[in-house]
Amino acid sequence: MTDPELAADRGSRGAGAWPLIHAERAALASDLEDLTTEQWARPSLCAGLTVREVLAHLTAGASLNAVSWLAGVIRCRFDFDKQVAMRLAEQLGATPADTLERFRHIVPSRTKPPLPAIAMLGETIVHGEDIRRPLGIRRDHPIEVVTQVAEYYRGSDLVVVAKGRIGGLRLSADDGPFATGSGPLVSGPTLALTMAMTGRATYCDDLDGDGVEVLRSRCATA
Description:
Distance between the termini: 37 Å
Structural class: mainly alpha
């Protein structure tokens, strides 16, 4: 492909990600409609954050464009963790109902920080599962959607360390076409592979193969 063709291909894939992002957000909002106060306060799989706080984090990510993101980074003196915490607090609201309503408001949003749209899809699915798994909620994500996310993370350390985490391992999905790498095998559902490569050790329980414990140890030290 020529450079213009590559740019057009990236643009097309980015545009195609938005309906998937919107569908994933809508599904998550629906799953959380009837949570109790205790469930909102339950620890998520995202270290140090409750279910409610992770949802506010998703809202924050969909509320920041490149300019507002950079302004926050400068305000926080390039402390990216501080920026994340500040934006989360802005979107939390006074009650869990407020938190959910704010999230519903951004379901159709195409606003994003300076990240590719596929990264936003990955954030939505991964953080959605950070919320669902502790609550015992299951979503059957379309396999083609999760495969796109797995393909993105296998080659990226942009938002979270994923490419580096699976180095020297061979990942193979048993429910779809995703496969990558060489070395000791890690096999299982595409979603579990995606969650494990983004550092969620709990999902290693859903995986098989000689490389599982290596991957689990890398999640634990992330």
